[in-house]
């Protein structure tokens, strides 16, 4: 193990000026999701010993949550490993024999169904009619051509026109509509059907981007998100296995659960309070509290249970949703304006899953998904549904396969404000609503209610407040970089550097919204500290 004594040639460094002599730097990691665990794991492996991970909830994993029901495991959050080449999550799963390949990575019509099921997506209209296969294929060809165009704007620059037109949804809807209407071979009925399918495809896209509407997603930045080559995979025993692998190398004493952070004081903004706090400890003879002032900690983390922790560095991995809600009251002094602007400009919304378990399948063996196409959406812009019609945002249900593992289960998708509304209803209401939808669209009034329902609630979770991030209209990849920038930045001020570092999927410019982006961001911030202390300290075996 390495000791972190100050080397003689670093005495003039503002970080070390008589403050860190003969002790390890104290590092607090806020959040025990993939980013926080990967950061703590790497720091511990690199010889750091004074590490504390604070997790607000009663469990580790963050937006990874695997629920075991009977013999099957269902992932309410992260489910798939997207790509293999250079993907650290894939490597962990591969090394531990967890993988099951599920797709060849090719884009299919609408949502990619990633449950090892070779079959056909069944599209139904709100009138209870199944849409012919040739109509689906014709429309899919047009949609996918336009989708590919959206990837090119990142290289070509911002689209010409008003700011509101810099939107994936507006661009896609306008171009697809023009192409459909220009096709003279299509009958009026067929065109209307395809226009309705356009809205369904955009709902699917909204679920994948975790936004309320694709009208909110920046067209000029859409192509910056980078897909890792290789197949998509699921972990049959649950994505929580990745969390457990990361946590395996972290002593249990390091992770504190149910520790909600109230505020973070940095740049020694708390120093004037230290004498009072220490006198209070002394007056009440509180055990386990040491005289901290002379040790020179620059950051104080206050928890809602009134405990405070002094630290040299804090790695913040809380979600963008939590930062949006609490950054003004959490950080003292306030965050710099460029970081506040990035928090406000970047987007995050909610994508929820609804699992329905049936006694027997009512769908045919070749069916891998059931998609809902509302015919009355055909000519509308991005549909804005009143609260009581929240269910119109459910874009469809995937068939979980193999049935020997999952039973007879459908997995539904809903996103945006309608997902938040769905979360307010009880299980019985949601199950009944989904049953009525399935009966309406398939034209089968005899579909029974599911015997069990399981669903996520990421939007209303106070410690998450959304599923994952996206680049909203008006934001750029530079905002992601600003969000990731540590405070203070090295050499930017005379203050000690890297007091607060930021990790999490929303801080990775190329891989935002992904589990591998979250993991890599945690390792990135740990790497900053490892590199800094390589310069400041010399290590020797104890």
Describe the structure in your own words:
This protein is of the alpha/beta class and 542 residues long. It has a domain at 5-61 and 238-347 and 473-538: FAD/NAD(P)-binding domain (3-Layer(bba) Sandwich). It is built from 15 helices and 24 strands. The chain has helices at 34-45, 88-95, 133-150, 153-156, 168-182, 188-209, 240-248, 271-284, 320-330, 337-345, 403-406, 416-424, 427-442, 477-484, 515-536; strands spanning 5-6, 27-30, 51-54, 66-69, 72-75, 80-82, 100-101, 120-125, 232-234, 255-256, 261-265, 299-303, 308-311, 313-316, 331-332, 347-349, 351-358, 367-373, 396-399, 408-415, 452-455, 468-470, 500-502, 537-538. The strands form 7 sheets. A 6-stranded mixed sheet has the order 8-18-19-20-17-21, sandwiched between helices. Helix 3 crosses helix 5 (168-182) and helix 10 packs across helix 14. The longest helix has 22 residues, at 188-209. The chain is globular, with a radius of gyration of 26 Å. It starts with a strand and ends with a strand. The model is unreliable at 1-19, 104-117, 275-291 and 538-542 (pLDDT under 50).
